[in-house]
Protein backbone atom coordinates (compact mmCIF):
# COMPACT_ATOMS: atom_id res chain seq x y z
CA UNK A 1 0.00 0.00 0.00
CA UNK A 2 2.83 2.43 0.81
CA UNK A 3 4.59 1.71 -2.48
CA UNK A 4 1.34 2.12 -4.40
CA UNK A 5 0.75 5.44 -2.66
CA UNK A 6 4.32 6.50 -3.49
CA UNK A 7 3.91 5.67 -7.17
CA UNK A 8 0.70 7.70 -7.37
CA UNK A 9 2.20 10.66 -5.48
CA UNK A 10 5.27 10.52 -7.73
CA UNK A 11 3.06 10.61 -10.81
CA UNK A 12 1.20 13.64 -9.44
CA UNK A 13 4.48 15.45 -8.73
CA UNK A 14 6.34 14.96 -11.96
CA UNK A 15 6.29 17.46 -14.80
CA UNK A 16 8.08 17.90 -18.11
CA UNK A 17 9.31 20.63 -20.40
CA UNK A 18 7.01 21.66 -23.23
CA UNK A 19 8.10 24.60 -25.38
CA UNK A 20 4.75 24.86 -27.13
CA UNK A 21 2.88 25.43 -23.89
CA UNK A 22 5.43 28.05 -22.86
CA UNK A 23 5.29 29.96 -26.12
CA UNK A 24 1.50 29.95 -26.10
CA UNK A 25 1.18 30.80 -22.42
CA UNK A 26 -0.40 34.00 -21.21
CA UNK A 27 0.79 33.42 -17.63
CA UNK A 28 4.03 34.91 -16.36
CA UNK A 29 6.09 32.83 -13.95
CA UNK A 30 9.00 35.26 -13.63
CA UNK A 31 8.96 39.05 -13.56
CA UNK A 32 11.30 42.00 -13.95
CA UNK A 33 10.38 45.56 -12.94
CA UNK A 34 12.40 48.62 -13.88
CA UNK A 35 11.81 52.22 -12.89
CA UNK A 36 11.66 54.86 -15.61
CA UNK A 37 14.68 56.53 -14.01
CA UNK A 38 16.69 53.33 -14.38
CA UNK A 39 15.54 52.95 -17.98
CA UNK A 40 16.63 56.53 -18.66
CA UNK A 41 20.08 55.71 -17.31
CA UNK A 42 20.28 52.62 -19.50
CA UNK A 43 19.12 54.58 -22.56
CA UNK A 44 21.82 57.16 -21.88
CA UNK A 45 24.45 54.43 -22.08
CA UNK A 46 22.86 52.78 -25.11
CA UNK A 47 22.44 55.94 -27.22
CA UNK A 48 25.69 57.69 -26.32
CA UNK A 49 27.70 55.88 -29.03
CA UNK A 50 24.98 56.63 -31.61
CA UNK A 51 24.93 60.35 -30.81
CA UNK A 52 28.71 60.66 -30.73
CA UNK A 53 28.99 58.92 -34.08
CA UNK A 54 26.36 61.13 -35.65
CA UNK A 55 28.11 64.29 -34.42
CA UNK A 56 31.50 63.23 -35.73
CA UNK A 57 31.10 65.58 -38.69
CA UNK A 58 32.84 68.58 -40.22
CA UNK A 59 31.55 71.18 -42.64
CA UNK A 60 33.08 73.93 -44.71
CA UNK A 61 31.48 77.37 -44.74
CA UNK A 62 31.95 80.40 -47.00
CA UNK A 63 35.10 82.45 -46.49
CA UNK A 64 37.35 79.55 -45.57
CA UNK A 65 35.62 78.77 -42.31
CA UNK A 66 35.05 75.27 -41.04
CA UNK A 67 32.96 73.95 -38.15
CA UNK A 68 33.27 70.72 -36.21
CA UNK A 69 31.03 69.61 -33.35
CA UNK A 70 32.22 67.69 -30.33
CA UNK A 71 28.87 66.57 -29.05
CA UNK A 72 27.81 64.33 -26.23
CA UNK A 73 24.63 63.14 -24.60
CA UNK A 74 23.99 65.37 -21.61
CA UNK A 75 20.89 63.53 -20.44
CA UNK A 76 18.07 61.33 -21.70
CA UNK A 77 14.70 61.18 -20.00
CA UNK A 78 11.64 59.08 -20.73
CA UNK A 79 8.06 59.26 -19.56
CA UNK A 80 4.99 57.22 -20.38
CA UNK A 81 2.88 58.61 -23.20
CA UNK A 82 -0.66 57.71 -24.29
CA UNK A 83 0.15 57.66 -27.99
CA UNK A 84 0.04 53.84 -27.77
CA UNK A 85 -0.17 51.12 -25.09
CA UNK A 86 3.54 51.16 -24.29
CA UNK A 87 4.67 54.45 -25.78
CA UNK A 88 7.27 56.68 -24.19
CA UNK A 89 8.23 60.25 -24.84
CA UNK A 90 12.01 60.29 -25.25
CA UNK A 91 13.86 63.56 -24.67
CA UNK A 92 17.56 63.52 -25.55
CA UNK A 93 19.51 66.46 -24.20
CA UNK A 94 22.73 67.25 -26.03
CA UNK A 95 25.84 69.04 -24.85
CA UNK A 96 29.44 69.53 -25.86
CA UNK A 97 31.07 72.23 -27.94
CA UNK A 98 31.37 73.55 -31.49
CA UNK A 99 34.77 74.44 -32.94
CA UNK A 100 34.89 77.23 -35.51
CA UNK A 101 38.10 77.21 -37.53
CA UNK A 102 38.82 80.46 -39.38
CA UNK A 103 41.51 82.86 -40.50
CA UNK A 104 42.04 84.15 -36.97
CA UNK A 105 42.33 80.72 -35.40
CA UNK A 106 39.93 78.37 -33.63
CA UNK A 107 37.11 79.38 -31.35
CA UNK A 108 35.03 76.96 -29.25
CA UNK A 109 31.49 77.77 -28.21
CA UNK A 110 29.08 75.68 -26.08
CA UNK A 111 26.73 73.39 -27.99
CA UNK A 112 23.37 72.30 -26.71
CA UNK A 113 20.20 70.89 -28.12
CA UNK A 114 17.26 68.61 -27.68
CA UNK A 115 15.90 65.70 -29.70
CA UNK A 116 12.35 64.69 -28.86
CA UNK A 117 10.27 61.78 -30.11
CA UNK A 118 7.63 59.27 -29.05
CA UNK A 119 8.50 55.59 -29.47
CA UNK A 120 7.00 52.29 -28.24
CA UNK A 121 8.69 49.88 -25.85
CA UNK A 122 8.70 46.25 -27.01
CA UNK A 123 9.26 42.98 -25.18
CA UNK A 124 10.43 40.27 -27.56
CA UNK A 125 12.79 37.27 -27.86
CA UNK A 126 16.40 38.44 -27.73
CA UNK A 127 19.09 37.73 -30.27
CA UNK A 128 21.57 36.34 -27.74
CA UNK A 129 19.45 36.11 -24.60
CA UNK A 130 16.02 34.69 -23.88
CA UNK A 131 14.21 38.02 -24.01
CA UNK A 132 14.92 41.67 -24.70
CA UNK A 133 13.30 44.96 -23.76
CA UNK A 134 13.72 47.30 -26.73
CA UNK A 135 12.88 50.90 -27.50
CA UNK A 136 11.57 50.57 -31.04
CA UNK A 137 12.97 53.79 -32.47
CA UNK A 138 12.33 52.79 -36.08
CA UNK A 139 8.63 52.54 -35.23
CA UNK A 140 8.47 55.99 -33.70
CA UNK A 141 4.90 57.20 -33.50
CA UNK A 142 5.75 60.85 -33.71
CA UNK A 143 8.82 63.02 -34.18
CA UNK A 144 8.44 66.09 -32.04
CA UNK A 145 10.17 69.40 -32.64
CA UNK A 146 13.90 69.00 -32.16
CA UNK A 147 16.68 71.54 -32.10
CA UNK A 148 20.45 71.78 -32.08
CA UNK A 149 21.92 75.14 -31.12
CA UNK A 150 25.24 76.75 -30.36
CA UNK A 151 25.70 79.87 -28.29
CA UNK A 152 26.62 81.89 -31.32
CA UNK A 153 26.56 85.14 -29.36
CA UNK A 154 29.91 84.02 -27.97
CA UNK A 155 31.54 84.02 -31.40
CA UNK A 156 34.09 86.79 -32.05
CA UNK A 157 33.20 89.67 -34.34
CA UNK A 158 35.33 88.30 -37.15
CA UNK A 159 32.95 85.33 -37.37
CA UNK A 160 29.72 87.35 -37.64
CA UNK A 161 29.42 86.62 -41.36
CA UNK A 162 29.04 82.87 -40.78
CA UNK A 163 26.58 82.84 -37.91
CA UNK A 164 23.58 82.11 -40.11
CA UNK A 165 25.41 79.41 -42.16
CA UNK A 166 26.42 77.81 -38.88
CA UNK A 167 22.80 77.74 -37.67
CA UNK A 168 21.67 76.31 -41.02
CA UNK A 169 24.27 73.56 -40.68
CA UNK A 170 23.16 72.85 -37.11
CA UNK A 171 19.60 72.37 -38.35
CA UNK A 172 20.85 69.90 -40.96
CA UNK A 173 22.82 68.02 -38.33
CA UNK A 174 19.75 67.86 -36.07
CA UNK A 175 17.82 66.16 -38.86
CA UNK A 176 20.68 63.70 -39.34
CA UNK A 177 20.77 62.98 -35.62
CA UNK A 178 17.07 62.15 -35.54
CA UNK A 179 17.51 59.95 -38.62
CA UNK A 180 20.42 58.06 -37.03
CA UNK A 181 18.70 57.64 -33.68
CA UNK A 182 15.49 56.34 -35.26
CA UNK A 183 17.16 54.03 -37.77
CA UNK A 184 16.91 50.93 -35.59
CA UNK A 185 15.61 49.53 -32.34
CA UNK A 186 17.72 50.09 -29.26
CA UNK A 187 18.10 47.09 -26.94
CA UNK A 188 17.93 48.33 -23.37
CA UNK A 189 17.78 45.21 -21.22
CA UNK A 190 18.18 41.50 -21.89
CA UNK A 191 16.90 38.79 -19.58
CA UNK A 192 18.47 35.34 -19.76
CA UNK A 193 17.31 32.90 -17.24
CA UNK A 194 17.41 31.47 -14.82
CA UNK A 195 17.82 27.99 -16.33
CA UNK A 196 18.48 26.27 -12.96
CA UNK A 197 20.92 23.92 -14.69
CA UNK A 198 18.02 22.12 -16.39
CA UNK A 199 18.78 21.19 -20.01
CA UNK A 200 16.31 22.67 -22.53
CA UNK A 201 14.74 24.94 -19.92
CA UNK A 202 13.41 28.04 -21.70
CA UNK A 203 11.69 31.31 -20.91
CA UNK A 204 9.45 33.37 -23.18
CA UNK A 205 8.38 37.03 -22.97
CA UNK A 206 4.61 37.11 -22.46
CA UNK A 207 3.59 40.32 -20.70
CA UNK A 208 4.53 44.00 -20.75
CA UNK A 209 2.91 46.52 -18.45
CA UNK A 210 3.80 50.20 -18.31
CA UNK A 211 2.59 52.09 -15.27
CA UNK A 212 2.53 55.87 -15.70
CA UNK A 213 1.37 56.46 -12.13
CA UNK A 214 4.32 54.62 -10.58
CA UNK A 215 6.81 55.42 -13.37
CA UNK A 216 7.76 51.80 -13.89
CA UNK A 217 7.75 49.00 -16.45
CA UNK A 218 6.95 45.35 -15.70
CA UNK A 219 8.06 42.53 -18.00
CA UNK A 220 6.64 39.04 -17.43
CA UNK A 221 8.13 35.76 -18.64
CA UNK A 222 6.63 32.28 -18.99
CA UNK A 223 8.64 29.08 -18.77
CA UNK A 224 8.30 25.85 -20.69
CA UNK A 225 7.55 23.88 -17.50
CA UNK A 226 4.34 22.11 -18.48
CA UNK A 227 2.84 22.05 -14.96
CA UNK A 228 3.11 25.83 -14.65
CA UNK A 229 1.11 26.37 -17.83
CA UNK A 230 -1.94 24.47 -16.61
CA UNK A 231 -5.16 26.42 -16.18
CA UNK A 232 -5.21 25.91 -12.40
CA UNK A 233 -1.86 27.69 -11.89
CA UNK A 234 -2.15 31.43 -11.43
CA UNK A 235 0.23 33.91 -13.01
CA UNK A 236 2.35 36.17 -10.88
CA UNK A 237 0.97 39.60 -10.05
CA UNK A 238 2.68 42.38 -12.04
CA UNK A 239 4.96 44.31 -9.71
CA UNK A 240 4.72 48.02 -10.48
CA UNK A 241 5.23 49.78 -7.15
CA UNK A 242 8.75 50.87 -6.24
CA UNK A 243 9.77 53.09 -3.34
CA UNK A 244 11.89 56.20 -3.83
CA UNK A 245 15.08 54.29 -2.97
CA UNK A 246 14.24 51.37 -5.32
CA UNK A 247 14.61 51.11 -9.09
CA UNK A 248 14.27 47.40 -9.78
CA UNK A 249 12.34 44.32 -8.66
CA UNK A 250 12.55 40.62 -9.46
CA UNK A 251 9.64 38.28 -8.81
CA UNK A 252 8.55 34.67 -9.33
CA UNK A 253 5.66 32.25 -8.88
CA UNK A 254 6.43 29.96 -5.90
CA UNK A 255 5.22 26.88 -7.82
CA UNK A 256 8.30 27.37 -9.99
CA UNK A 257 10.53 26.15 -7.14
CA UNK A 258 8.94 22.78 -6.55
CA UNK A 259 8.60 22.08 -10.28
CA UNK A 260 12.22 22.99 -11.01
CA UNK A 261 13.27 20.81 -8.08
CA UNK A 262 11.23 17.89 -9.45
CA UNK A 263 12.91 18.30 -12.85
CA UNK A 264 16.36 18.28 -11.23
CA UNK A 265 15.47 15.10 -9.36
CA UNK A 266 14.22 13.60 -12.64
CA UNK A 267 17.64 14.09 -14.29
CA UNK A 268 19.48 12.77 -11.21
CA UNK A 269 21.00 16.13 -10.32
CA UNK A 270 19.27 15.83 -6.95
CA UNK A 271 18.65 12.55 -5.15
CA UNK A 272 15.22 11.00 -4.81
CA UNK A 273 16.32 8.50 -2.12
CA UNK A 274 17.80 9.10 1.33
CA UNK A 275 19.01 7.35 4.45
CA UNK A 276 17.09 7.63 7.69
CA UNK A 277 19.41 10.48 8.72
CA UNK A 278 18.61 12.51 5.59
CA UNK A 279 21.75 11.81 3.58
CA UNK A 280 21.37 11.41 -0.17
CA UNK A 281 21.89 7.74 -1.00
CA UNK A 282 21.05 5.96 -4.28
CA UNK A 283 20.29 2.83 -2.24
CA UNK A 284 18.49 4.68 0.55
CA UNK A 285 15.25 3.24 1.83
CA UNK A 286 13.41 6.55 2.08
CA UNK A 287 11.86 7.89 -1.12
CA UNK A 288 11.01 11.60 -1.20
CA UNK A 289 8.13 13.17 -3.10
CA UNK A 290 7.48 16.87 -3.24
CA UNK A 291 4.29 18.62 -2.27
CA UNK A 292 4.22 22.42 -2.42
CA UNK A 293 6.46 25.39 -1.89
CA UNK A 294 4.44 27.93 0.02
CA UNK A 295 5.03 31.57 0.82
CA UNK A 296 3.33 33.25 3.75
CA UNK A 297 2.97 32.13 7.31
CA UNK A 298 1.61 29.34 9.49
CA UNK A 299 -0.11 26.10 8.60
CA UNK A 300 1.14 22.74 7.46
CA UNK A 301 1.60 22.71 3.69
CA UNK A 302 2.16 19.01 3.17
CA UNK A 303 -0.36 16.97 5.12
CA UNK A 304 -3.39 17.11 2.86
CA UNK A 305 -4.95 18.34 -0.34
CA UNK A 306 -6.27 21.52 1.26
CA UNK A 307 -4.13 24.62 0.82
CA UNK A 308 -2.62 24.73 4.27
CA UNK A 309 -0.80 27.83 5.40
CA UNK A 310 -1.27 31.40 4.35
CA UNK A 311 -0.46 31.91 0.70
CA UNK A 312 0.30 35.20 -1.00
CA UNK A 313 -3.33 35.97 -1.76
CA UNK A 314 -4.04 35.74 1.96
CA UNK A 315 -1.10 37.97 2.83
CA UNK A 316 -1.80 40.72 0.29
CA UNK A 317 -4.88 41.76 -1.62
CA UNK A 318 -4.67 41.84 -5.40
CA UNK A 319 -3.36 45.13 -6.72
CA UNK A 320 -2.31 46.37 -3.31
CA UNK A 321 1.12 47.03 -1.95
CA UNK A 322 3.18 44.09 -0.77
CA UNK A 323 2.59 42.49 2.58
CA UNK A 324 6.14 43.14 3.71
CA UNK A 325 7.56 41.22 6.63
CA UNK A 326 10.70 42.84 7.92
CA UNK A 327 12.87 42.08 4.90
CA UNK A 328 15.64 44.39 6.01
CA UNK A 329 16.75 42.41 9.05
CA UNK A 330 18.08 38.94 9.69
CA UNK A 331 15.23 38.16 12.03
CA UNK A 332 12.43 38.99 9.63
CA UNK A 333 11.71 38.20 6.01
CA UNK A 334 8.99 36.27 4.25
CA UNK A 335 8.11 32.86 5.73
CA UNK A 336 8.44 30.00 3.24
CA UNK A 337 7.89 26.26 3.53
CA UNK A 338 8.65 23.23 1.37
CA UNK A 339 6.18 20.40 1.86
CA UNK A 340 7.32 16.84 1.14
CA UNK A 341 6.55 13.23 1.96
CA UNK A 342 8.71 10.28 2.94
CA UNK A 343 7.90 6.76 1.80
CA UNK A 344 9.59 3.57 2.97
CA UNK A 345 8.48 0.30 1.43
CA UNK A 346 11.64 -1.77 0.99
CA UNK A 347 11.03 -5.49 1.15
CA UNK A 348 11.73 -6.79 4.64
CA UNK A 349 11.72 -3.32 6.13
CA UNK A 350 9.27 -1.34 8.17
CA UNK A 351 6.79 0.28 5.76
CA UNK A 352 5.44 3.73 6.43
CA UNK A 353 4.71 7.11 4.88
CA UNK A 354 5.08 10.51 6.49
CA UNK A 355 4.23 14.08 5.62
CA UNK A 356 6.79 16.72 6.55
CA UNK A 357 7.78 20.29 5.93
CA UNK A 358 10.94 22.34 5.95
CA UNK A 359 10.22 25.93 6.94
CA UNK A 360 12.19 29.12 7.27
CA UNK A 361 12.30 32.48 5.54
CA UNK A 362 13.63 34.53 2.68
CA UNK A 363 15.13 37.81 3.83
CA UNK A 364 17.61 40.56 3.09
CA UNK A 365 20.42 40.62 5.62
CA UNK A 366 23.26 43.17 5.38
CA UNK A 367 22.52 43.80 1.72
CA UNK A 368 22.43 40.13 0.69
CA UNK A 369 19.52 37.83 -0.07
CA UNK A 370 19.33 34.87 2.28
CA UNK A 371 17.16 31.76 2.15
CA UNK A 372 17.11 29.29 5.02
CA UNK A 373 14.82 26.29 5.54
CA UNK A 374 16.15 25.35 8.95
CA UNK A 375 13.12 23.86 10.70
CA UNK A 376 12.04 20.39 9.59
CA UNK A 377 9.11 18.64 11.22
CA UNK A 378 6.43 16.02 10.67
CA UNK A 379 2.96 17.09 9.64
CA UNK A 380 1.62 13.53 9.58
CA UNK A 381 3.10 10.06 9.89
CA UNK A 382 2.04 6.43 10.06
CA UNK A 383 5.31 5.56 11.81
CA UNK A 384 6.47 6.08 15.37
CA UNK A 385 8.13 9.48 15.72
CA UNK A 386 11.51 8.01 16.68
CA UNK A 387 11.90 6.06 13.42
CA UNK A 388 13.11 9.13 11.52
CA UNK A 389 14.96 11.93 13.28
CA UNK A 390 13.96 14.94 11.18
CA UNK A 391 16.29 17.20 13.14
CA UNK A 392 19.07 15.97 10.82
CA UNK A 393 17.13 16.65 7.62
CA UNK A 394 17.70 20.41 7.37
CA UNK A 395 20.85 19.63 5.38
CA UNK A 396 19.16 17.16 3.03
CA UNK A 397 20.19 17.69 -0.58
CA UNK A 398 16.72 18.47 -1.93
CA UNK A 399 16.08 21.01 0.84
CA UNK A 400 19.37 22.78 0.19
CA UNK A 401 18.65 22.80 -3.54
CA UNK A 402 15.25 24.45 -2.99
CA UNK A 403 17.04 27.25 -1.10
CA UNK A 404 19.41 27.72 -4.04
CA UNK A 405 16.50 27.77 -6.51
CA UNK A 406 14.92 30.68 -4.64
CA UNK A 407 18.15 32.68 -4.73
CA UNK A 408 18.70 31.84 -8.40
CA UNK A 409 15.18 33.00 -9.26
CA UNK A 410 15.96 36.40 -7.72
CA UNK A 411 19.50 36.77 -9.06
CA UNK A 412 20.31 40.10 -10.70
CA UNK A 413 23.01 38.40 -12.78
CA UNK A 414 20.20 37.15 -15.04
CA UNK A 415 19.89 40.72 -16.36
CA UNK A 416 22.17 42.40 -18.88
CA UNK A 417 22.02 46.07 -19.84
CA UNK A 418 23.34 47.69 -22.99
CA UNK A 419 26.98 48.90 -22.89
CA UNK A 420 26.94 48.66 -19.10
CA UNK A 421 27.14 46.49 -16.03
CA UNK A 422 24.36 46.32 -13.50
CA UNK A 423 24.79 45.71 -9.78
CA UNK A 424 21.60 44.87 -7.90
CA UNK A 425 21.59 45.83 -4.24
CA UNK A 426 18.77 43.93 -2.47
CA UNK A 427 16.67 46.05 -0.14
CA UNK A 428 13.65 43.99 0.91
CA UNK A 429 11.44 41.03 0.11
CA UNK A 430 7.66 41.05 0.04
CA UNK A 431 4.52 39.28 -1.11
CA UNK A 432 1.92 39.89 -3.74
CA UNK A 433 -0.71 37.37 -4.82
CA UNK A 434 1.05 34.24 -6.15
CA UNK A 435 4.30 36.18 -6.10
CA UNK A 436 7.50 36.49 -4.09
CA UNK A 437 9.21 39.84 -4.75
CA UNK A 438 12.73 41.11 -4.22
CA UNK A 439 13.12 44.87 -4.53
CA UNK A 440 16.44 46.65 -4.75
CA UNK A 441 18.48 49.53 -6.02
CA UNK A 442 20.59 48.91 -9.11
CA UNK A 443 23.76 50.76 -9.97
CA UNK A 444 24.46 50.98 -13.71
CA UNK A 445 28.12 51.50 -14.50
CA UNK A 446 30.48 51.28 -17.43
CA UNK A 447 32.09 47.84 -17.89
CA UNK A 448 35.53 49.31 -17.21
CA UNK A 449 34.54 50.63 -13.80
CA UNK A 450 35.16 48.59 -10.69
CA UNK A 451 35.96 44.91 -10.59
CA UNK A 452 34.60 42.05 -12.66
CA UNK A 453 31.96 40.93 -10.16
Question: What's the quick description here?
Answer:
The protein is an alpha+beta fold. The chain has helices spanning 2-13, 19-23, 36-54, 163-181, 255-266, 312-315, 397-409; strands at residues 30-35, 59-61, 65-81, 87-102, 105-124, 131-135, 142-143, 147-150, 186-191, 203-211, 216-223, 248-252, 273-274, 286-295, 334-344, 352-365, 368-381, 415-417, 421-432, 435-445.
> Low-confidence parts, pLDDT < 50 over ≥5 residues?
298-321, 323-331
Beta-strand portion reads: 35-45%
Q: Based on CA inertia axes, which overall geometry fits?
A: elongated
Give helix and strand order, one letter per element, not per position.
HHEHEEEEEEEHEEEEHEEHEEEHEEE
Task: Please tally the β strands and state the result.
Answer: 20
Distance between the termini: 53 Å
Secondary structure: helix percent: 10-25%
Based on CA atoms alone, the radius of gyration comes out at: 29 Å
Q: How many helices in DSSP terms?
A: 7
For the sheet with most strands, the description reads: 9 strands, antiparallel
What is the mean pLDDT? Answer: 83
Structural class: alpha+beta
Explained architecture:
This protein has 453 residues and is an alpha+beta fold. The chain has helices spanning 2-13, 19-23, 36-54, 163-181, 255-266, 312-315, 397-409; strands at 30-35, 59-61, 65-81, 87-102, 105-124, 131-135, 142-143, 147-150, 186-191, 203-211, 216-223, 248-252, 273-274, 286-295, 334-344, 352-365, 368-381, 415-417, 421-432, 435-445. The radius of gyration is 29 Å and the shape is elongated. Residues 298-321 and 323-331 have low confidence and may be disordered.
Amino acid sequence: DVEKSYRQTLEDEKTELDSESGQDSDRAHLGLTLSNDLLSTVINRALNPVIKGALNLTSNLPGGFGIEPSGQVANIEIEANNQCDHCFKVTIGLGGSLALNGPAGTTNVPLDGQLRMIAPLDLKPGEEKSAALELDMNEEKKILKSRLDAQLDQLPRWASSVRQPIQNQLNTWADKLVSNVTSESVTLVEFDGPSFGIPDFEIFPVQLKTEAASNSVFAGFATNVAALNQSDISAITPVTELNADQNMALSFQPELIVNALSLLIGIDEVSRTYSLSGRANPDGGLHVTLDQFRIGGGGEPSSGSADAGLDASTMASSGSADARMGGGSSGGGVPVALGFKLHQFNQGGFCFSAGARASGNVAVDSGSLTTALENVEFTSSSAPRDVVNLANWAGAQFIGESEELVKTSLNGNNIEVSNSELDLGPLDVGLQPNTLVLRGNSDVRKPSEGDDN
